Amino acid sequence: MLNISDNYNVANFYHKGTIQPSFRSNIQKSYDIFTRATVTKNATCFFRGDINWKQFCKLILKTFKNSEKANIVCVPCSDGSEPVSLLLKLMQFKEYRNKPEKFKQIKAYDIDEKQLEIAKSNKIPLLNDLSELVMDNISLFFNARKGAGKNYFIKDNCLELADHLKDKIKYEKGEISEVVTNLPKDEKVVLLARNVFPYLDDFFCFPRVMNALSKLKSGSVLAIGDYDTAKIPQFEKMIEAKGYKKTKTKNCFIKL
Ligand SMILES: C[S@@+](CC[C@H](N)C(=O)[O-])C[C@H]1O[C@@H](n2cnc3c(N)ncnc32)[C@H](O)[C@@H]1O
Questions:
Q1: Ligand 1 in contact with 195 (CB < 6 A)?
Q2: Could you tell me if the CB of 225 is within 6 A of ligand 1?
Q3: Is residue 110 in contact with ligand 1, taking CB distance under 6 Å?
Q4: Does domain 10-255 have CATH number 3.40.50.150?
């Protein structure tokens, strides 16, 4: 279990999977002209509970078992919670740790520069549920702070991603339909395109993403989120119509 310090108040953790406005409450609201509801567009959290992270990592490792290169793309990444969750979970697998040449970088994109700025700070607020992390050697994952006594790893109520992991995620500004259209077609890709589809316009972005999905190489994996299926009727069927099959891992599809 994660053991940061005796001082650490576990009660401060949000309940696992609780969706919160992203880090530092940089809340981005928008008004839905059809439902007249206000929606928080950048809600995210570490280890968002609509995917089984362990199973998902196993699926990723299987996907790239015989590949020289692993293309892992996360769009949108919001404040970085999602790609960091994935990286930290993957780090628990020796098949990932032992193949740095294969697993070079997770590519993470968002359209919102403020979110990307937060992501690039590599800070992980303690208000997130990190109980997914089982680790013997915490300094493998987080930077130690010199002279900070008991809260050795904590500063401003945050953990900081270890320096050696910082370049394992590359953040860039990117619009999802552009990013997905430009993914390689001749190599397998694992694409996290989660909890974003309801925000895409019906006339350009949404059909452009769906069209690009149909062109990914067989064996590629697509991960979506509960918000996508909750808001878009028959969304899973739409994905299947683009040549995908549901896997045993919730919210994950494989390209046939
Ligand atoms: C609800 S968050 C999802 C974050 C993360 N994937 C997750 O599941 O927790 C939605 C994010 O989508 C981004 N976004 C909205 N429209 C986008 C677009 N067309 N291209 C890229 N990012 C977009 C927003 O900036 C926001 O950070």
A1: yes
A2: yes
A3: yes
A4: yes
